[in-house]
Design a protein that fits this description.
Elements (H helix, E strand, L loop, with lengths): L1 H9 L4 E3 L7 E4 L7 E5 L2 E5 L4 E5 L5 E4 L10 E7 L4 E6 L4 E4 L6 E4 L15 E7 L2 E6 L3 E5 L4 E6 L12 E5 L2 E5 L5 E5 L12 E3 L5 E7 L2 E6 L3 E5 L5 E6 L4 E7 L2 E6 L3 E5 L3 E6 L9 E7 L2 E6 L4 E5 L6 E3 L11 E5 L2 E5 L17 E5 L2 E5 L10 E6 L6 E6 L3 E6 L2 E6 L18 E6 L5 E5 L6 E4 L5 E4 L14 E6 L5 E5 L3 E6 L4 E5 L13 E6 L5 E5 L2 E5 L18 E4 L2 E4 L6 E6 L5 E5 L4 E4 L6 E5 L11 E6 L6 E5 L2 E5 L14 E3 L11 E4 L6 E6 L4 E6 L4 E4 L12 E8 L6 E8 L2
Antiparallel strand pairs: 1-10, 2-58, 3-4, 4-5, 5-6, 7-8, 8-9, 9-10, 11-12, 12-13, 13-14, 15-16, 16-17, 17-18, 19-20, 20-21, 21-22, 23-24, 24-25, 25-26, 27-28, 28-29, 29-30, 31-32, 32-33, 33-34, 35-36, 36-37, 37-38, 39-40, 40-41, 41-42, 43-44, 44-45, 45-46, 47-48, 48-49, 50-51, 52-53, 53-54, ...
């Protein structure tokens, strides 16, 4: 029956079924900013920036709903639960509507408004839902649309501005025989709700036309409206809406739940019964400095949604709030991430395409370890803003440094921020003599444990920080004469020879040899480096010591790293040329590359600012995977950073709309075969994926046979794992039974036998 219903729903225009990715992906979203609140099915629903969570009133359990479950990952603007139809309806700023069916099992995407060509993109925002007689009146930035909740299809749309123009409608409500619609662009409209010609703007009467309104609500037989200047008014018939009272703080939410009108300001929440009688009020939150953003009343309890602290429940007659907040990072716009086995650090700074940090972002940092998040507020990290790079010491993961493109270098030891280095306590210089402006960016460790960093607008812009925290500065003006006055130094990586490479956004790729102080540079010109563009955003060495270079206009590979400083050597970088329908094409041509990472199999993960993520074979000739927001849980195609856990193969993606992780399988090679394992094992009926055999040494030979010795699979590992599709060399699925995995190291000095059970 469920399958039949789903098929019928998909046949309705404007509906599509969202895909669930829980088996392969994990979402790490922030839930601190609550945009809207609803209630139903004995649960409170809270819409965060681009994800939803529910709070079970009976069990107090919290469940999350994200792009991994099938949500769009777009910015949520409104939310409503229909008890009559057991549906959660989510509205977005871009006009998309998603309908979550009972028990969160299916999510339907309604794209009629989103894809309507006659409505400008800035007019599609969903502002409010109001259910009446099985119809959902949707207040939008262009007018009102009517949606049939039983048939799951749209009816008419009402353009009720002057002369039938599009006008922002903030809320609708029905009182008696009338429907009211408030507008932030002037006036409140009223019409007969059963009028079959509401599509005609002349059927609507305008009240208080010179006033802007954030909402209108029916409370019993009374109708109240809230002005944008936080003045409450009541409808009194032909005279329109007359003032009742003013609120000293900005009103941010205005709604009726049951027989109570809830008015939420940035600092308070109050509930009024018919006759505008105050039933309960919370004017302060001891122990918290909360900024209200949304509010709801249910069962004599306030639910107060905040800008940065999640959802709070406050019973009537109390001012002791209970925080309701799923575990997650501090913010939903990660810029830089780095991982060590089982943990990840996340920073939320940002710079523009020209490496300008202004306007400054005063956000904290987040640390995920042992399956939980530890968040540090801005004040807890010594007010270090615009953190743009995270560098975990590969030899000692308890030692972490983060570079700020305004405030210097943040040091973290054993999971705790302990110090910030800037012009006041180190040899780092500020470009502003009146205040700290130390613009660090790139960061990487050499084999001796030294941290190398880049500093923009500084003659000695390449700095080595020793393990004893001595800052050793290197002059780069021989290669960048104007380094102290213009341009920016970006990402930095170190080759196996110990050469230091970094990007200079106005001059290309710079290399430095610490052993003799030699400097060299390549640029975008043919014969001088052949870079795709001088503004380099990502560089990374692969397992063959080739340097992959990503710029704002494409990708290059430098094959001759060892000869970079040799006089007369050919050091032009090369594009990757692939064949598309037999025609040679440059891989990632003109795409803005934001990060490049290499996994245990020497394959490349490359993120872009506009086109999601590419997973390429070791030589770049084959695209193994391509992730976008349309075919994966990526909440945005603008992916700012990637990090790979070398032991689990999990790949983390920091997008401008949140952090997600893909359960990859390419892990780093091990030193021996002691910890070989496979998953899933056993392979149960219905499983259609690959079996991963992990814990391998580099270039280990892996053979799989049945119990009679018939060979069904053979491969040499590139990293620490291989994958078997449970077929006999791709010809057919193997039968149920036990299969032997015979593993031999490259030098044949160590062997291992492992078993996999297949159940068909």
């Amino acid at each position: 029956m469920r399958l039949l219903v789903t098929i019928l729903l998909l046949c309705i225009h404007g509906l599509s079924m969202a895909q669930n990715f829980e088996n392969e992906w994990t979402g790490y979203f922030s839930y601190v900013s609550i945009k809207d609140i609803s209630q139903g099915n004995d649960k409170i629903y809270a819409g965060a920036e681009n994800a939803v969570f529910s709070y079970d009133l009976s069990t107090q359990e919290i469940e999350t709903l994200t792009s991994v479950n099938g949500l769009a990952g777009e910015f949520i603007s409104s939310m409503y639960y229909s008890d009559n139809f057991n549906l959660l309806v989510i509205g977005y700023e871009n006009g998309l509507i998603e309908i979550v069916l009972e028990d969160n099992e299916d999510i339907l995407k309604v794209v009629d408004i989103l894809e309507k060509p006659t409505i400008p993109p800035n007019r599609k925002r969903i502002n409010h839902f109001n259910e009446y007689n099985g119809k959902l009146y949707i207040a939008t930035d262009f007018g009102i649309s009517v949606y049939d909740l039983e048939r799951l299809e749209f009816g008419d749309s009402y353009f009720i501005g002057d002369l039938g123009t599009q006008i922002n409608i903030s809320q609708t409500t029905v009182s008696g025989e009338f429907i009211f619609a408030s507008s932030t662009e002037g006036g409140i409209r009223r019409a007969l709700v059963d009028n079959t010609n509401l599509i005609n703007y002349e059927e609507w009467t305008t009240f208080n036309g010179g006033v802007n309104w954030i909402g209108v609500q029916a409370l019993g037989e009374e109708v109240y409206a809230m002005r944008t200047d936080s003045r409450l008014s009541e409808y009194v018939g032909s005279a329109g809406f007359v003032p009742v009272t003013d609120f000293s703080n900005q009103v941010v939410d205005f709604g009726v739940q049951g027989d109570l009108l809830t008015i939420t300001t940035t600092a308070s929440i109050e509930a009024f019964s018919e006759g505008f009688i105050l039933e309960a009020s919370v004017q302060s939150f001891p122990g918290f400095e909360l900024v209200g953003q949304s509010g709801y009343t249910h069962n004599n309890t306030f639910y107060f949604g905040t800008e940065t602290d999640g959802l709070f429940a406050i019973p009537f007659g109390s001012n002791q709030p209970q925080q309701i907040l799923p575990d997650g990072p501090i913010d939903n716009r990660p810029y830089s991430i780095d991982v060590a086995p089982g943990e990840i650090w996340v920073a939320f700074g940002e710079v523009d395409v020209d490496f300008n940090p202004f306007p400054l972002t005063n956000k904290g940092i987040s640390h995920f370890k042992e399956e939980s998040w530890m968040n540090f507020e801005f004040e807890e990290i010594f007010e270090t803003n615009d953190i743009v790079n995270v560098a975990i010491d590969p030899q000692d993961p308890s030692r972490v440094f983060m570079t700020s493109h305004n405030k210097g270098l943040l040091q973290i030891v054993d999971g705790q921020p302990i110090r910030r280095y800037d012009d006041t306590n180190s040899s780092l210089n500020s470009i502003n003599p009146e205040q700290t402006d130390v613009r660090l960016y790139g960061a990487d460790y050499d084999r001796e444990g030294n941290l190398w960093i880049t500093q923009s607008r500084e003659a000695e812009g390449l700095i080595r920080v020793t393990p004893s925290l001595s800052f050793q500065k290197n002059d780069i003006t021989d290669i960048i004469p104007n380094a102290a006055n213009s341009g920016a130094l970006g990402e930095l990586r170190i080759s196996r020879e110990g050469y230091v490479f970094f990007g200079y956004n106005q001059g290309g790729l710079v290399g430095y040899n610490p052993s003799n102080g030699d400097l060299n540079v390549i640029t975008e010109g043919i014969g001088t480096g052949n870079l795709a563009d001088n503004n380099i955003r990502a560089i990374e060495f692969d397992n063959q010591n080739r340097l992959w270079i990503g710029s704002i206009k494409g990708l290059r590979v430098l094959f001759n790293v060892g000869g970079f400083f040799d006089e007369g050597a050919d050091i032009d970088s090369q594009p990757i040329i692939i064949l598309e329908d037999g025609v040679p094409q440059e891989l990632l041509f003109q795409l803005s590359v934001t990060d490049i990472e290499v996994d245990g199999s020497n394959n490349k993960w490359i993120s872009t600012a506009t086109s999601g993520v590419f997973y390429l074979s070791s030589n770049g000739q084959e695209t193994l995977l391509r992730f976008t927001k349309d075919n994966s849980p990526l909440p945005s195609d603008n992916v700012q950073d990637i990090a790979i856990d070398p032991f689990t193969g999990v790949v983390y993606f920091a997008t401008v709309n949140g952090l997600v992780a893909y359960n990859g399988s390419s892990t780093a090679p091990r030193e021996n075969l002691e910890d070989v394992y496979s998953f899933p094992n056993p392979v149960r009926p219905g499983f259609a994926g690959n079996v991963t055999i992990d814990g391998l040494t580099a270039k280990a030979n892996v053979k799989i046979t049945d119990l009679e010795g018939n060979l069904v699979f053979e491969e040499t590992s590139q990293g620490g794992s291989v994958q078997w599709d449970t077929t006999a060399f791709g010809r057919y699925k193997v039968a149920s039974g036990v299969y032997l995995v015979l593993i031999t190291t490259e030098d044949a000095l160590e062997t291992k036998v492992h078993k996999i059970m297949i159940v068909r």
